[in-house]
Structures are given as structure tokens and as C-alpha cells.
Amino acid sequence: MRSSRSSAEGASNGALRAVESTRDASSIEPFDEVREPGVPGPANAVHRVTDAKATNSGVNVCGGAQQNASHDSPRDAPAEPLSPDDPLAPLPFNPYKGNRGLTRAWHAMKNSLAGFRVAIREESAFRQELTLAAILIPCGLVVPVEPVSRVLLLGSVLLVLIVELLNSSVEAAIDRISLERHELSRRAKDLGSAAVMVALGMCVMTWGVIVGPLVVGWVRASL
């Protein structure tokens, strides 16, 4: 009986020792030196473990500080001033844009009249089209048609003048930049001339569709 009890107690003690050894092994931290109990180790073993922990914590702190700095640097960094070529940069101050209300309308009217004078004096194409408009506008007011047709007749004539003024402004801007022959300058002027031709074609088509039957009827009645 004593032998069986002693063997049982020895087995239980062995199991407890195994559990305790497992706990001790799991509690061992990195860089710790494992020794047998009762065996003296070097005096600087504790210092090694402490230095290793401090080094790891220092790395983590520095790394966290660097990450925080990297995340906070774009927010805390001052915004760089925009260059004049940047489309989002504010426009320079224009003293001619400071007028408001009736003063602005008065200056706009003066500038428009100045533009008409320059177009009449400098642009021969505008003078020809203005002469044509001086003939067609009274005819459009006198011809017996419906109000909508009258508006179309007068609007087609005014459209030619509008497009010609825009074409003249584009040509003046291109000549202001450079007077040398360039493919892009020629293309811009050709596109403006094409726009004027389309406006003239629309004017001819409108007058031909609305006034053409009336003219044919008047000719037949006179014959």
C-alpha cells in the first residue's frame, strides 16, 4: 500500500513540476538567459534584459513618433503660395473692374461704342456687313410677315454682325501676341472666318425661306 501511495504521490508531484516548468518557460521574455535554479549567472544578465527592453521600447516610441510626424506633417505644413501660372491663383488687381452699378453700365456703354468705332474704322468686312444690315433691317421691318418670322429675319442679320465682331476681336488678340506667321495663328483666324461664313449662310437661308415666296408672288403679280 505504501509503495502504491508513494508512486501516486510521485506521479502527482511530477505533473505539478511539469506544469510549473511550462509556466516558467512561458514567462521567459526575449533575451533572458535560462539557467538552472541555484546556478549563479553573470552579473550583467539583468542589465542585458533591461537594456533590450529599453531599446525595444525606444524603437517603438521613435517609430510611433515618426509615424505621427508623417501623418501630421501634411496637415501642419504651411501651404505654399500659388505661382502666377497656376489656374487657381488669384487674378491680379484690375482697376477697371472696380466699378459697380450705374457706373459700370456707363463705362461698359462707352467701351462698346469705342469698339463699334474701331470696327467701322479698321475692319472693311464689318463695314460691308453693316451696309448690308442697313438695307436688310428696314426691309425686315416692312415686309408683311408674322412676328416670329420678322424676329428671325432681323436676328439673322444681327447674328452676322455679332460673329464678325468676335472674329475681329480674335484677330486683334492674335496680332497683339505676335505678327509673325504661325500655323496656330492662321488656324485661329481661319476658324473665325468660318464662323462668319456660317452666320452669312444662315442669314441667306432665313431670308430665302421667309421672303423668297413673297418676292416670287410679287413678281408673278406684276407680270
TrEMBL record:
Residue ranges of the TM segments: 191-219
UniProt keyword annotations, A-Z: ATP-binding, Cell inner membrane, Cell membrane, Kinase, Lipid biosynthesis, Lipid metabolism, Magnesium, Membrane, Metal-binding, Nucleotide-binding, Phospholipid biosynthesis, Phospholipid metabolism, Transferase, Transmembrane, Transmembrane helix
InterPro entries: DAGK, DAGK_prok, DAGK_sf
Enzyme Commission code: 2.7.1.107
Subcellular localization(s) per the UniProt record: Cell inner membrane
Reactions this protein catalyses: a 1,2-diacyl-sn-glycerol + ATP = a 1,2-diacyl-sn-glycero-3-phosphate + ADP + H(+)
Protein family membership: Belongs to the bacterial diacylglycerol kinase family.
Job description of the protein: Catalyzes the ATP-dependent phosphorylation of sn-l,2-diacylglycerol (DAG) to phosphatidic acid. Involved in the recycling of diacylglycerol produced as a by-product during membrane-derived oligosaccharide (MDO) biosynthesis.
Protein name, as recorded: Diacylglycerol kinase
Organism annotation: Paraburkholderia translucens
